[in-house]
Each structure stands twice: as structure tokens, then as C-alpha cells.
Amino acid sequence: MTAHAPEKIFLSDYTPPNWLIEDVGLNFHLSPTATRVTSTIRFVPNPAAASRDFFLHGEQLKLISASIDGTSVSPKVTEQGLTCDVPDHAFTWVAEVEINPEANTSLSGLYMSGGMYCTQCEAEGFRRITFYPDRPDVMAPFKVRIEGSDPVLLSNGNPTASGEGWAEWNDPWPKPAYLFALVAGDLIARDDTFTTMSGKNVDLKLWVRPGDEGKTAFGMDALKAAMAWDERTYGREYDLDIFQIVAVSDFNMGAMENKGLNIFNTSAVLASSDTSTDANFERIEAIIAHEYFHNWTGNRITCRDWFQLSLKEGLTVYRDQQFSADFRSASVRRIEDVISLRGRQFREDNGPLAHQVQPDSFVEINNFYTATIYEKGAELIGMMKTLVGHDEYYKALDLYFTRHDGEAATIEDWVRVFEDSTGRDLTQFRRWYKQAGTPRLTVTDDFKDGIYTLNFEQKTLPTPGQEEKLPQHIPIAVGLLGANGDEVLATQILEMTEDKQSFTFEGLTSKPTPSILRHFSAPVILDRDSTPEERAFLLTHDTDAFNKWEAGRALAKDVLISMITGRSAPTQDYLGAITAMLRDDRLDPAFRALAIRLPGQDDLAQTLADGGVTPDPLAIYQAHQTLRQQMAEHLQDLLPRLSAEMDVADAYKPDAEQAGKRALGLELLMLANRLDGGAAATAQYARADNMTLRMGALGCLLEAGKGDEELADFRARFEGDALVMDKWFAMQVAHAAPEKAAEIASTLTQDSDFNWKNPNRFRAVFGALMMNQAGFHDETGKGYALFADWLIKLDPVNAQITARMSSGFETWKRWDADRQALMQAALKRIMATENLSRDTQEMVGRILN
Ligand code: TRP
Ligand code: ZN
Predict the structure, then answer these.
(1) Residue 798 in contact with ligand 1 by CB distance below 6 A
(2) CA–centroid distance, residue 329 to ligand 2 (Å)
(3) Residue 730 Cα to chain centre, angstroms
């Protein structure tokens, strides 16, 4: 056990920096094991600071020399950085350090990936490159000179000069160090240009390793679409002569918004129909937009400190969701976003890792790049837009951009902008940022003398460190339907601010059916007793696509929960309703595909636990199996015709229309697969000319315990393609029968292609194991043990990934006593590991609490 708990950092301790920076010059002399970095920094006293003490962050740096105004100095160096006596006026600091990129497996700072140099500085990686005040409220223009033998040498900003073995870059926009980037390697670019709304030409370059050129077209198109969209929608124009993206194989997250030089995980940018699924294309488009949008929401306006992380991430997720909604079906996107919100953020909010959108303290900031900061943060923006309305929202955003451009701002600044711009009092709304946990909203209704009343009650359960909860300001979008299915009241926004609140609707001739929380207008759990008939009625008639889908999901949940708890299940209502829904060819195939997908097993476990029932992962898995079998049998006659309708004759395009047809086609294939012994899936695999259909078919075969031949074929075809091999690894675990999942995962870790230090490959196997709920939670505990073994092994190599993935254990309190004991034992074993990173210590500590 480690001797002492790692140190916490508090928002309330914030003080402005003692020194500000006028400009920075960096000189890199690259070498895999001994890179030299010389920094020349002009420091000026900060008039807003009380002290002139001088501290620079720095980790794992070898200090070669340091001087102030040309006089050599001897700073005091510790593990965290250095202190030095300095003048009490402006001065120029020059320091030279040596670093070892090849030994850097953490993928933070300057490291090597497949022979190329690259950097990742968010959140606190720059301090592993040189000594610097590595905090986002210190912003400066950077000039960079790179010397090295690689043909391509890149950094932020505009290129100013280059020659054989060197290149110089100038970034005129003041930025915090976390947005610094450097890339060097043997790379080739897809080139393009974009003309901005004021007529400026911007060079676009998407850099990849030789061999990947064929996978860059889609990313480039997405980038241009995002640039045009941000001009159109938010009036935001790009501000440098060049915008570059680099694809890197070893990367901890999806991508990074470094000023003018975004660095992407290959999985978040490379796309081709042979190697990427429709879902991959959709994700890539969203991430490219997300990183590009950061240029304004994150870079031009950055965060004062890391407690403000959601200021840039929540807003930028909201913006990328808007972008995707505009380019694809808005309602389908909304449903997908909510599925992911519930699957990741609600799960987080409901367990030991629950935290505020603006936390009060943290140990390791990398542990706070969470669904709560990102996705719940985005929901808060959406609610603000709902409350103030479309026009007022964009007016407020204009004020935000003019008022805070060039600043390191706070969430408070953001809310204040909305108040100043719209005149609304958002005092209560601020609670959404400071109160963790998902509010539960219970609803009852009654109808008397032509007056219809909806009674709401809100309650948020205690979360770690926050026992008492106050009522939230909740925008509830409501519509009412008459008995014939017509809408008698179009969508209205009710504003709930009290613990209990009723709303009345007059002038109705009969009791309506309410459609509540349309478009998922607030991130809450809606609890309403309803009948299968009413759910089926809403699935048929609701004009709000989200709630139409929601009705089907609620009905499916009723069926599954009843099956699991041994009550009589409204299966016939469900089967009848989805048959009618599937037959309705006015409905978008993508919508129909979502509407017949069963609620996830994690969702069911959570619902059972909420209702006081200890979930049994195997029973949940079996209920899924049983209902899918019943669906297949019930839909038997419809399947062939409908499947044929979903065939796409045209050449592959990753657009929403084709993707929707393929999605529904695959849902139907999964059902047909239960009846035909795998015949249709085998045939589809054989004729597939794109990855979506190929992978869909293979998944079906694996699900049926078949597909050995196809699996071998898949590997032979794609052996050299790391991103496709990730799929090969993941699929085998994801589709394994529960009792086999851990063994299959374990065998795969012995495979010669299991490069466990590569985050994509590690996640392929272990991310899939966690998704296979019944497999991971196998009663013997072998899933937990295997996972713990590998987390312990990964921790010294890559603490960030280890800590993030340890959240696979976050639900431990939900399960039965035996599983709890096994999970606890695994967690304690991790915790007892010698020299465990502070990242993982914090996470496992919080999970165990
Ligand atoms: N800012 C990045 C984004 O949201 C996230 C990110 C990329 C990141 N790489 C990281 C965060 C490494 C922490 C550590 O787009
Ligand atoms: Zn982001």
C-alpha cells in the first residue's frame, strides 16, 4: 500500500500567476533518445499577483543550463519543477534541457510513435518538454525552430522559413502551453485549400504515414464542411494561413486541438469503405469538427484553470453535436447522443465516480476528461439554449466571443454572458454545474373539468461528498396527444424550479396522452407509471421522434425487466408495436434500426439496481437472448422483404441515407441469423464490399458460435492494417458467449499482434470485455482477475489509460455479495501494487471509497 494519499488541488486555492509571458522561443534539436530543447522566454511581472516568487513546472527533464538576462543561474530543481531567484522586473529566461522521447511510453509530452516524433501536451504534458509555467492562464505567442533529420518538421501557427534539416514556425495567437504541438517524421500530406468568409485562403494539410494516403479524402471533406459550418452558424472564421491535421497510431484519446496543428488518433481520422464502418465515418466526422471548433471554443477563448474544463469541452461537444445533427438526421443523432449519455454519463453519475461538471477538487486532471465534463456539460449548454431560445442563444454567443476573445475564461464568465445578454437570472441554473448526480423526475397526471394537470417531483440522490441536493432548474418539453393520436398541444417548455411543481392545461375535451421530456430536453431520469398500451400508442403517434423512440425503449425495458424478475411480460404488446413500426416505410430506416435495438444490458442492470433488485448479469443476458429469439420468430414473414428493401444498390457512400439502410439491414440480419443457422450472414460476409456489411456479418456468425473461417479470412485480408486488426481483436471478445469471454480475451493477449502498449489495441480487447457484461461479470471472477492483471501491467507504462479503464469496476456496488467481493479483491490488488501511479491511485481509491 502506498504510504500517503496523493495531494488534492482545490478550485478555491486558485491565484493568478506571478509572472506573465510576452513571448516564447523554442529550439528543438531532435534525437530519439536525447532531444535538446532550448527555451527563450520573456517574463513580465503580473500586476494582478501578490508575489514575485518564481516557479516553473518540469518533469523528467535533464537541465543542461539556465540563464537570466544572459547571466547563468543555478535553479533549485525538484521532481515537480524548479524555483529560482529572479529580478523584480521583466527578464529573459533561457534554459536548455535534454529529454528522451523514445523512453516516453506515457504518450504525454514528446514521444515517438512508429518512428515519428509527436507531442501531447493537454493537460500537463508541456512540463515534460521544458521548464515552463504549465497552466492555461499563462498565454503567449510561440516561435519554434526544429532541427532534425526527418523530412517533415511541423509545429503550430504559420511556417516562416525552412531548409535542409530545419524548419521554423510562428504562432502569433497567444496560447497556453497545453496547445503546443510538434510533429516530425516521414509523412505525406493530402493538400487542399479553403477560402474563408472574408476571402482569405487557408492551406489545409492532412498528414499521414506513407500507405495511408487512400484514407484521407473523407477527413478532408469533413474538415472543410466544419470550417464552413462554423462560419455559417457561429460567424467564426479561421485565423491562420494554414490548418494541419496529423494522424498518429499511438494516442491516448481521440484527438487534440493544438493551435493550427491538430493531432489525431489514426482511428479518429483515417477512413475508407473497405476498412471503416458507417459508425466509424460518423465518429470521424464528429471528431474532426470537434477539434476544429476548439479553435474558437478552447483556443481563442481558453480556460483559466482545469476546473473550467467543461467551458471548452461541454461547449465544443454541443457544437459538434449541432454540426452532426445538421448533416445527418437530427432526431437520429439526438437518440444516439442520449444513448451514449445514459450509457456513460448516467452510469458515472450514479456511482462512486460521480462528480460535478465543475469539480471543486481533483488529484490528477487527466482523470476528469469524463462523460460528465464532456457530455453532461454539452447538455447544460443545450438546456440554456432551450431556456433562452434560438435567437437569444446566438446573441449570447456573439457576446461571449467578443467579450472573452484572447482570454482564459471561467464557467462563471460564460453564465454571466448569458445573463447580461438575455437579462435572465440564471442563479438557480448554475447549480447544474455544481451539483453532481442525475435528477430523477417523477410524474403523475389527472384530468378534471376539462383541466389536465401534470405533477412533477424532482429528487437527486446523494453523491460522494455531496449529501444534500437542491432543486434544479429543469426545462421540460411537453406535448399532448388526443385519443385519435393527433397532437392537441404542440411542444411547450415548462420550467420546473421547485422540488414539486404542477402545470395545468385548459380547454381539453378529454384526457390527453402526455409526451414528456421531448427531444430529451434535460439530462434527468424520467419516471412515470404507464401502461404498455400507452407506450405503444406513443410509439405509433408521437410527433417528437425522440419520444417516439423513447416509448419503444420503455416498452422493451418493461418486457425485459418483467422477464428477469419473473413477472408477466407485455411481450405481445411489444412485438405488435415494433412490427407496425418496422412496416411504416415513412420512417427513416436509421430510426427504425434504433427503435428495434434492445436497451443495453448495462442499462437494464442499472434499472434493476435502482428499483432495489440485485441484478444478475447472466439473467439479463438470457432475457436479451430470449426476447431477440421471440422478435425473430414474430417478424419471420417480414424479414426477407424488409431486408431486400434495405439493400443498397449504389456505390458505397458513408452518408446518412445509405448508412441508415445498412443499419436496419444489419438489425434484421441479426434476427434472421437466429432462424437460418447463419446462412444469410455467411453469404453476406462472402459478398460484402464494405466494412460495415463485412463486420456486421462476422458479428452475427460469432454470436452464433460460428465464423472461424471468416475470422481467419478477415485476419489474412487485413493483417497489416492496425485499425482493422483492432476490430478483429474486439469482435471476438464482444461477441463471445459469457462463459468464454475471459478465456478468449486471455488467449488474444498472447497473440503476436497484441501490442499492449498501443492504447487502441489494449482498448480493443479490454474495452470489448467490459462491453460484454455477462462475460466480464462471469461468476468465477476470471474476467475481473484478467482485467486487473493487465491494468497492473499497464500502469507503469501508461498511467492515463490504466486509470481511465479502471472505471470498468465502477459499478461494483451494484452486484451481488459474491461479485462485490471478487471485484473488491481485484481493486484492492491493484491498489496494493507497488509504485502505483497517482492517476490510478486516485481512480481506484474513489471507486473503493
Ligand atoms: N482536448 C481533447 C479533446 O477533447 C482531449 C484530449 C486529447 C486529451 N488528448 C488528451 C485530454 C490527452 C487529456 C489527455 O478533443
Ligand atoms: Zn474537446
Answers:
(1) no
(2) 23
(3) 19
